[in-house]
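Quick review question:
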């Protein structure tokens, strides 16, 4: 179900914090930062509570972490690229840098830096608790584990869903999303966000996995599925995506 229908909504900020503390312990980091877009007000509050809980319970001290803080991004799609993100953390304009060494060797304030999506960190505690094989078995069609998918567009119940990796696009739309809005015919869909290739309705049974979507000529990307119903102007959709990249990159 959606976040609002599951206990995972309350657990997610704590899982992110736990996963980051595990990562700090593995790489020997003393400082951790959660980087959030400015629009994410409720998420910021929830993460702040989770960090306060972890601090009060002594989890930071146990992991040897001196600081776990939240940084609010100045905003912009391009700041999802790790070197642009790190530039803003150092007080500079958020532009990607094609430079060496890579962040893992020498980057933020001259120190080795590990950058991962919060979804990755949120999965870590459950993988450790359940065991790798149990976690992988939760996937389908040969794909491992679980993933979060944002479902939007012409669908009855848009939202963020946690699904088994490898779940078909058809099941995501019909079972989780309640079907195409207004019971219209499906025209096509973007399976992984704005930077992935649009697929036709004939690809509806494609599993949401890296390998399966790569084989179609598209990609899983960010896990953001955009549904387009019959009657949508595909050229207008494409032009809107191009404008987005022009303005944000």
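Suggested answer, residue by residue:
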């Amino acid at each position: 179900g959606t976040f609002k229908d599951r206990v995972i909504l309350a657990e997610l900020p704590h899982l992110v914090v736990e996963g980051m503390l595990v990562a700090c312990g593995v790489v020997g980091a003393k400082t951790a930062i959660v980087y959030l877009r400015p629009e994410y007000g409720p998420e910021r509050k929830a993460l702040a509570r989770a960090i306060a809980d972890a601090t009060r319970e002594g989890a930071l001290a146990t992991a040897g972490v001196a600081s776990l803080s939240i940084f609010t991004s100045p905003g912009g799609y391009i700041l999802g690229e790790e070197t642009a993100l790190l530039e803003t953390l150092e007080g500079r304009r958020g532009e990607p840098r094609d430079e060496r060494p890579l962040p893992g060797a020498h980057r933020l304030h001259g120190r080795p830096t590990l950058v991962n999506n919060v979804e990755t960190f949120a999965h870590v505690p459950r993988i450790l608790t359940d065991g790798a094989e149990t976690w992988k078995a939760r996937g389908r069609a040969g794909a491992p584990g679980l993933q979060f998918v944002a479902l939007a567009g012409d669908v009855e119940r848009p939202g963020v869903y946690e699904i088994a990796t490898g779940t078909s696009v058809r099941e995501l739309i019909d079972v989780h999303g309640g079907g195409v809005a207004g019971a219209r015919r499906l025209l096509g869909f973007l399976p992984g966000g704005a930077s992935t290739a649009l697929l036709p309705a004939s690809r509806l049974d494609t599993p949401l996995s890296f390998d399966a979507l790569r084989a179609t000529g598209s990609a899983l990307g960010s896990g953001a599925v955009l549904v387009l119903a019959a009657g949508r102007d595909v050229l207008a959709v494409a032009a809107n995506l191009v404008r987005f990249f022009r303005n944000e990159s």
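Why it works: The two ends are 33 Å apart (CA to CA). Strands lie at 31-36, 67-72, 146-153, 159-164, 186-190, 199-200, 224-229.
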